[in-house]
């Protein structure tokens, strides 16, 4: 069973479209994240949710909107896609702070290509 | 916020050579965790090791070894007798105890040639 799963794995779309990437974890973790990996391989945190509540929101355009319907899911919705949004997006999860070992459990990544 | 620096952008070695990947970090917390992840060409992030700030003992796992030195804020990674399958991008990362925010270095691309 996949611990952190993302769908779709690949997404090719046109500029201006709206798209979503879904993430689910079955580890019982309280905290979920989205990271963006650009073409130079740099990994940067975008958002972090703890028990459905936003706790980290880095400088990300407001075209990006995370949605957490429950603590096992954190979806990423992107409006009005731009060429610069092309990247690999990684979802991750971690246990509650009180049990925190710092480790993140990553999904396999979703490669978004904007044409 | 914490910061991780991997000064080596790319390293190329010939198979069987030893190679060391450098990692230097900055944090104001006294309790933190350091990590290394491997990202092979297939793209997934593979967890290699976690060290907490109170444990400076070096660790060896097969051909991999890690040298954690708080005095120099470094957490270096050595691959002994490198193999072609070690070719990947390697990331060092730091997570502070009081927040759920893992920060990554820029990564080092290792190429091992036959």
Summarize the structure.
The complex is a heterodimer of chains A (115) and B (114). With 115 residues, chain A is mostly beta strands. Helices cover 0% and strands 55% of the residues of chain A.
Rg from Cα of chain B? 14 Å
How far apart are the termini of chain A? 34 Å
- Alpha-beta classification of chain A: mainly beta
H-E string of chain A: EEEEEEEEEEE
User: Biggest β-sheet of chain B, characterized?
Assistant: 6 strands, mixed
> Roughly what fraction of the amino acids of chain B lie in strands?
over 45%
User: Distance between termini of chain B?
Assistant: 41 Å
Characterize the quaternary organization of these chains. Answer: heterodimer
| DSSP strand content of chain A | over 45%
Low-confidence stretches of chain B: none
Main sheet makeup of chain A = 7 strands, mixed
What is the share of helical residues of chain A?
under 10%
* Rg of chain A: 13 Å
Let me know the average pLDDT of chain A. Answer: 90
Q: Which descriptor suits the 3D outline of chain B?
A: globular
Q: Tally the helices of chain B: what do you get?
A: 0
What is the number of helical segments of chain A per DSSP (H or I, 4+ residues)? 0
**On the 0-100 scale, what is the average pLDDT of chain B?**
93
Low-confidence stretches of chain A: none
């Amino acid at each position: 069973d996949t611990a952190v799963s993302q769908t779709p794995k690949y997404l090719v779309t046109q500029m201006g479209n709206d798209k979503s990437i879904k993430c689910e974890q079955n580890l019982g973790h309280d905290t979920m994240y989205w990271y963006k990996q650009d073409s130079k391989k740099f990994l940067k945190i975008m958002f972090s949710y703890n028990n459905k509540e936003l706790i980290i929101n880095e400088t990300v355009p407001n075209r990006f909107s995370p949605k957490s319907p429950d603590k096992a899911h954190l979806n990423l919705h992107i409006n009005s896609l731009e060429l610069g949004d092309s990247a690999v997006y990684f979802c991750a999860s971690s246990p509650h702070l009180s049990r925190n070992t710092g480790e993140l459990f990553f999904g396999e990544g979703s490669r978004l290509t904007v044409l | 916020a914490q910061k991780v620096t991997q000064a080596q952008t790319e390293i190329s070695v010939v198979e069987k050579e030893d190679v060391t990947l450098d990692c230097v970090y900055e944090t104001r917390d006294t309790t933190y965790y350091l990590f290394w992840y491997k990202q092979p060409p297939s793209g997934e992030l593979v967890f290699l090791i976690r060290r907490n700030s109170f444990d400076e003992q070096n660790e060896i796992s097969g051909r991999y070894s890690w040298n954690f030195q708080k005095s120099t804020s470094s957490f270096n990674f050595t691959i002994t007798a490198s193999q072609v399958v070690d070719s990947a991008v390697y990331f060092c990362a730091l997570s502070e105890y009081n927040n759920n925010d893992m920060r990554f270095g820029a990564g080092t691309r290792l190429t091992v040639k036959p």
